[in-house]
Batch of 2 targets.
Target 1
Amino acid sequence: MNILASYNWIKEYLKTDLSAEEFAKLTTSAGNSVETISDLSKKFNRMVVGLITKVESHPDADKLRIVKTDIGKKKVDIVCGGENLEEGMLVVVGLPGAKVLWHGEGDLVELEKTKIRGVESHGMICAASEIGFDKLEQSEKDIWDITKITESKPGTPISEALGLDDFIFDIEVTTNRPDCKSIIGQAREGGAVTSGKFNFSKQVSKSENTNVHTKKGIKEFVVDVKEKELCPKYSAVLIGGIKVGPSPWWLQKKLLLAGFKPINNLVDITNYVLHEYGQPMHTFDADKLNGDKVVVRKAKKSEKFVALDGSEHKLDSSVLVIADSKRPIAIAGVMGGESTGTTDITTSVLIECATFDPVSVRRTSRALNLYSDSQLLFEKGLSTEATEPALMRAISLILEIAGGKIISDIITHKTSDYKSLVFDFDEDSVNSLMGIDMSKKAMVTSLEKLGFMVSKSNKVTVPYWRDNDIESSVDFVEEIARIYGYDNFPAKLPSSGLNFLKEDPGLVWERKIKDLLAGSGLTEVYSFAFVSKDQLDNYGISEQNVVKIKNPLTIDQEYMRPSLVPSMLTAISKNNKRFPVGGLFEVAPVYKNRKNDRPKEPLQLVLGVYGGDGKGSFLKAKGILERLFGQVGIHNYEYKRDTDPQIWHAGRSVSIHVDGRFVGEMGQVSRFVERAFGLDVSAVIIRLEIAEMLDLFTNIKFYKAIAQFPSVKRDIAFVIDERIEYGAVIEKIMSDARLLESVDVFDIYRGKGVDEDKKSLALHLSFSSSERTLNAKEVDDELELLRTMLQKEFNAIMRS
Amino acid sequence: MKKELEKLKNEFEGVIKKVSDKDSLEKLKNEFLGRKGKVKSLMKNVASLADEERKVIGKIANEIKDAIEVSYGLKEKELEVQEYATIVDREWMDVTQPGTFAEQGHLHPVTKTIYEIEDIFSKIGFTRIPVPEVDWDHYAFETLNMPKDHPARDDWETFFIDAPEGKKGKLVVIPHVSNVQVRAMEDYELPFRALYIGRSYRRQSDTSHSPMFHQFEILMIDEGVNFTHLRGVIEHFVHSYFGPDRSIRLRPHHFRFTEPSFEVDISCGLCSGTGELDNIQCKMCKEGWLELAGAGMTHPNVLKAGGVDTKKYTALAFAFGIERTMMMRAGMNVDDIRTLYKNDLRFVRQF
């Protein structure tokens, strides 16, 4: 979360002469990250107070006026379309060179002297939104009338006239430091990292610790906290005789610069204190409450509530509410109700200043989808000690600005008495964890600047605004180190003895395989680990035993994929129009349910070659697979035609086995699958269970001595039935031959000259012996033996 | 005989002068120096002369033969030089036409980034270990000092598996790879330097959040590990991955499993850390700095949860999102981070 903090406002509590940039740098290094610094004097540069001396009509435009404006040294003509222009009015004049937002929108535009419909205009009379105050309530066609908010003379720079000579920091506040989402918090932190003095002392009421308190002449009012755990502290007070109206400019201005929309003095004051103290508050219109009692309780089932923002909610017992004697009037810590909200005619209010359980606020806010500045702070955890100074501040501001007087006691309910957190402190552990040598005195100084108190016996008392943050002694290290400045520490590479962990074979081979496949021309894809029920169905997987997500983001991300194939087919169908031919792969874990254990996550490889005819893709995919096998040291593999014909094309698919072990499948997907995934092309998929193969992979290459004696080459060609598998022929040749070194196919021919249902195989045969040079006769005899075998075993018709 | 030889020489010299192309030269070579050429047949005649004469004439004949060969050689060279001078016209090609490629594969940019980071850390002794993606909340939260009420453990932040609770709590689809921290303490002997990168999942899907993303983290546990080492490790990474000219800023931050914790910023590469480009605020960074990572000294509660003796050992951790880091360096302006996982080949094939 971020806070927009005015440097002037911070300086109300911090004495410092640092420039805004210097302050930002120091406070950032201590953890209050200043993300941007906005220099208002630059923002309002070339803008001055103008006094309208005469308003004349424009000769060529009905809706425009020529406004004679006194800008100090001279009077100029400005063409303006504002509907509320009046003589004697003070306005903001943007002179040429000023940067404004046209109609409060878009990027900043630099003004130039210009002619509007033939009349020279020497600047612009601005609406509030045109100079960045879009949150200031104003009629759309009006310019900003500043007559009532400044007494400056014409020509005075706007930043001076309106008290805008300031810098605004946009500061990121970490979730453990809600206290820093306040001006006081930022001033306190600033005081710890600069030499400036932080001066804030909390106001305390005289009637502390009174749960129910009545006195004559004072209205009796009861606070009944039923849920003491969820509401450890609740304070309330009635103020009557209030006059609701717009806030004075100084207050509006501070709210505008802090990012709030000024509404009326009551709302503005609670927002002001929220921003200054970091403690949310709520004001109820006291005349709209039923009875003289508020109850902090859980909502009843089906109780209805309309929030201030108009949203309607049906509550249940998980919601903590503030109720009057009849109905809920606020969701505790989140938002007040519409029916008891303050309006322009409110005259008496009940002010609530409380502490609520952070978890309850968070869960309620999420469940009701209801968010507010209060909820944002409450859910980070606020101290029960923070309510009182804030309430005192609010009361005094209300009395000062809205008038009225206190008509009840300040009623406070506390679940328990406050006790500060205390932890031991050990300077040695700070030095050894941080790798420096710092004196205890310097450490204590840092802690004390941050509001901690360190006793002589090394006990550290935690200030109340850090109640939900500091959990143990180790937390003091950070406090000391961040004030010291992380950039003041040296950087060293750890040099102690290395104890290397064993490499994980899955990770090692995953990397090699990815490199090899990309080297084979395939493109790697990354799909989500989630799949839909449809994707599973389409690939014939029942969702029954699939790892299911309880709270998926969308219905198509309901399951953790048990196979990479459905995602691959989806990826192909997404691309096959634009890229009609392609090869993709993915290596990732799949998820398999196990009994009494977390799911198993074996690594899988899926490869998809698509486009062209299925046969061609099959051979291409197979080529890539066999090359991969060769490179990872797998040689003893075989294929079996035993795949599921619903999933796989019955004639063009196999299961893959290595050393007799099933490791995956390869084939064209069946037409059912093609249709289900909406493929425009045929797709050949290879799925390998990498996790099952890790023991098969090896980098070791076997070396066979280079033959000493020349080999003798012969070619052979023959025609056999189409259905006789090449693999079977080669296997038989290799097993029968005695002097054969290698067989390479150089042509498989079908077509003219070869009968239908037949194919012609042409092979290079290479014969050799490790003992001697073979003579021609030996080779011819061997060849003859193979020919005879081919004729006999495969009915081959020899062509050569 | 001698005259005949002289005549032959003169004849050759006369003809060769006029030769201007390789073919004619070749013809001339055959005519004079070939197996049935004029020189050869004259030499034969020389062989048939009487001894005395043969000695004299033979010498002359050889001289003439050499001379012919020399002038042939010169001519051959001259023609080659002439020919080479015209090669630019005869064998001209359009060198700007597209080259022919072997089919090119593409690794996903996330893969490339992961491997690059892995290599940077392996140089300083960190070994990559695997990350279970579906894990017990004992490892994902509980032991990381994130109590039951922690917002990250709410249903709207983290994915949970629809399965009964086990001894170690609910099954979580990991929202960060930090579940490996306590697992590593249980699985490996101390001291160690571990690196883990894996898919992580959060219930958030918009242009800057993908429900699946990748996280990197290192964990080093040893005696005497302190903050200056963490700074050293971070510097090693930033200078290796982004370049030695980048500066580093550490800002105190808050994470449950480290204490102290901070965010690591690096100076912006676009505006060189000035925060301004041509007098306009740099759109890439915040006041000259880019948020890179989270880091800190491992919280003693986490070490204790992993059975580590916190009197003896301390530890450091450093983590960031792969996607963001990758895009920060490459100047890869992907408007929607989810593009990385849409498998649009128009995207992946650019890498």
Target 2
Amino acid sequence: MAEVIRIKKGLDIKLKGKVAVDGYDREAALPELFSVCPDDFHGVKPKVVVNEGDRVKVGSVLFFDKNNPDVKFVSPASGEVVSVNRGERRKLLNVLIKSDGSFESEPFTKADPKDLSAEEVRGLLLNGGFWPFIKQRPYDVVANPNDKPKAIFISGFDSAPLAPNYDFTLDGMKNELQLGVNALAKLTDGKVHIGIHKDNASKVFKEVRGAEVHVFDGPHPAGNVGVQIHHIDPINKGEVVWVVNPHDVVAIGKAFSKGVISFERPVVLVGSEVIKPLYYKSYFGASISNMVKGNVKEGANVRYISGNPLTGKQIAADGFVGAYDSQVTVLPEGDHYEFLGWIMPRLAKFSVSKSYLSWLMGGSKEYALDTNINGGERAFIMSGEYDKVFPMDILPEFLVKAILSKNIEEMENLGIYEVAPEDFALCEFVCTSKIETQKIVREGLDYLRKELA
Amino acid sequence: MKALRNFLDKVKPNFEEGGKLSMFRSVFDGFETFLFVPNTTAKRGTHIHDCIDSKRVMSMVVIALIPALLFGMYNVGYQHFLVNGILEGSSFFDLFLYGAACVLPKVVVSYAVGLGIEFIVAQFKKEEIQEGFLVSGMLIPLIVPVDCPLWILGVATAFAVIFAKEVFGGTGMNVFNVAVVTRAFLFFAYPKSMSGDSVWVSKDAVCGLGGGTVVDSFTGATPLGQAAVAQGDVVMTNAVGDPISTVDMLIGLIPGSIGETSKIAIAIGAVILLVTGVASWKTMFSVFVGGALTALLFNSIGTTPIMNISWYDHLLLGGFAFGAVFMATDPVTSARTEIGKYIFGFCVGMFTIFIRVLNPGYPEGMMLAILLMNVFAPFIDYWVVQANINRRKNRAKNNAFKNINA
């Protein structure tokens, strides 16, 4: 076993509503409505190729990227295109599909990617609609198929609050994972790296051949692939690496092993407002109605989030699972006033600051946090807050300031190519001044990408 | 609470844009957010937030200042009763009430002037009121001599808030610590009210409290002031000429600025700041280390009386401890990098002793040392950031080298 990479900085936020016993809700109905939303895939300019009423199969192209016509975005279900929704200035909002329940698939070549050429693998992934699930660093956008990445990274654990347990969701997927890794290995001259956590069994990852496994230890964000890249083989200016979520690696592997396209993935429904947190068999873009029906506290004022509470996206009660998400979180909405809250002991609230008493409550107490930001936005006041939850050799506050001042040279110097917005999620959580660091970093990356294009 | 909330909701539209009372929007907003944490929810990004906010941070500092404030009040009374020779037969409450009558007006003036300006600026900029002055407003009365006239205090506070803070963009943007600027303004603009031997002890009756005639042996100079001008061996005395020891300086029943005399009260504040993590222990600790080492250095030279003061007496004299605990640790104006905090703190301590020992004209080196280092804090951070940048550049270079050889 390789040596353990210890992540010291970070924070595990213990929230109420985690899965008590790993298991699927087998009685839940299959989702009926699916939505493929271009905004899920950052940096894509969509061009729609389907019309209302068209019949589609799993893997049928719905739209492609105008900047990169090879990158196709496909249907996760078979059925009928219900509507193509556009917003202001005809911006494509989503393509809505009503599933016929059969999940009939477009054809896919059954083969071991090992025996195929890099070009063949690339073509299959592009045509099968798997390409959008390969993301690149820098910029945290869908990978450009014409790039040769120096390495490909897979994070083998999710350390975010209430995240799914990959030991459970990937159990028995050894073969599919292996084929998926074989396919990815064809796309790089470098290595395929997998990061696993010391305390997890990570059985399937340990058995994979053709990938280098690295063991991490420590709190969130140790599971963020950006943190793992930083500690394994950091990105320097001009370099490109790709990252893929394990569930998508398995989906790729499944296509190669069975010759059919399927975007089935486990999605965990969690959060303090969920009656019985459980796993569901779901799909990217699938409606969450079937999951939340009868399983969310009745009458409660709640917020649905696709993804985890730190980086997820707010969705409606009948919203859809985000393209990269394996988690739906339901939290209490925090749109209420709190009398003199800032001077109260606030025993039910959580803070890393020792000015509240949560540090005396022990590490195992779980909190039901709501969505109130607990204060007002201010200029930077406290220093060193971000550093405590940012386990990279990067000065987060200075990088954020460089982005705010749109100083490209300074951004490059301070390591913007290594980060994604999600790496700043904990900074945003702990920030006394309530600064929206994830939004700032996103805008910084977009600005840089545009200026340097 | 519900009734109060309903009342606020009812009157709120009057204060919003276009309402009858919209000219008081910032005031209403300030009181509303003071009474109730707003109902703002996260719209994007992180959906949950730590329950810390700037009100909490600032109020922790104010709480940490309360022991020094209370002791300061008592000590003002004690000094007065001592020099008027009426200590015998006076109760604790006589002393404390007298001190409170002297000190509270200063607190009121400082807050009224500073917060008034903050409200106007917030109204003008259409922003939420910022809490920074909650701390500055408490610090200012604690770092002035008791005899400082209220109007001078008001002028100095207004100067500092406008020219040291608002012109830079408000709380979080200021280069200099607002309270220290206030004191520096007083020191240079009204030296007679800020230094010398007569301002440190209140000699007249206040609100009918205290009174009497000053005893013959009265010497109003602070121990630090005495040390600065000493010839031969330094013998420090209290306000009636009795010699004092290190322990007296620790307890703090000596003349000096209102909040700075009791090191025990300051230590309680320091514990609150460090336990709650509001102040950086790195800065605070480094100030003391810098001061102690510099004092030891001067001990080894030892050519003037003040050079021979022991390192621990130096740390207890004057405003050293108060400045180290409450003002050098201001996160906005001190270094913001972790390594920078050690350097910043060390230099503050070092320059304080330098100024004290080498320039007897300004015995209170702390104020000038903090101002000086406020200027250099961005420079210290610049070098720490540059080191990080160089590490990244070297990494890229080594990597390119590795690839060529591979």
